[in-house]
């Protein structure tokens, strides 16, 4: 039986930051799938695209089809297990909002593009700036995207050179 662990604000998860190129490739595949659902399901297309966008990361034990192809995985940090549907909805809520903006009767395409630029920029900047690659949606859901080769229940040790830098900073503070 797995035990839960308390996640404190600012506490590192123990997982290395996943490649941003792999994450971007996975997102592109998932957006293409959502777009295909949008165009192929007629009047229900927006709802199908929204549902896919929200639930995709909980489909295959923390991997959407795009993440599966590119070898990355979403982990729910407190239990160190693959993301569930609840976690997927929370972490993808900002992107779901972009799809919802496209439903606005008179502003549809403009609202979609404005949401894409604003929300996409915020999420991308947060992901780039965070040492673990955690974006706003990840902090809401307590998730992190990791390399799929890393076992979710076994966090990786920080590489020696980073550990040495951290030790040197500690010594300098004493």
Q: Kindly give the count of domains.
A: 1
Q: Write down how many β-strands occur, each being a DSSP E stretch of 2 or more residues.
A: 3
Extract low-pLDDT stretches: 156-171
Average pLDDT, to the nearest integer? 81
Shape: globular
Strand content: 5-15%
**Gap from first CA to last CA:** 41 Å
Question: Count the helices. How many?
Answer: 8
Strand order of the largest sheet: 2-1-3
Helix content: 55-70%
Structural class: mainly alpha
Q: Supply Rg.
A: 18 Å
Q: The biggest beta sheet, please? A: 3 strands, antiparallel
Order of helices and strands: HHHEEHHHHEH
Please explain how this structure is put together:
This protein has 174 residues and is mostly helical. The chain has one domain (20-173). The protein contains eight helices and three strands; from the N terminus they run H-H-H-E-E-H-H-H-H-E-H. It has helices at 20-40, 45-55, 65-70, 85-91, 93-101, 108-129, 136-141, 160-173; strands at residues 72-76, 81-82, 143-147. Strands 2-1-3 form a three-stranded antiparallel beta sheet. The protein is globular.
Q: Which features characterize this protein?
A:
mainly alpha; 8 helices; 7% strand; 174 residues
Summary of the model, kept short:
The chain is mainly alpha-helical.
List the topology elements.
Blueprint: H1 20-40, H2 45-55, H3 65-70, E1 72-76, E2 81-82, H4 85-91, H5 93-101, H6 108-129, H7 136-141, E3 143-147, H8 160-173
Antiparallel strand pairs: 1-2, 1-3
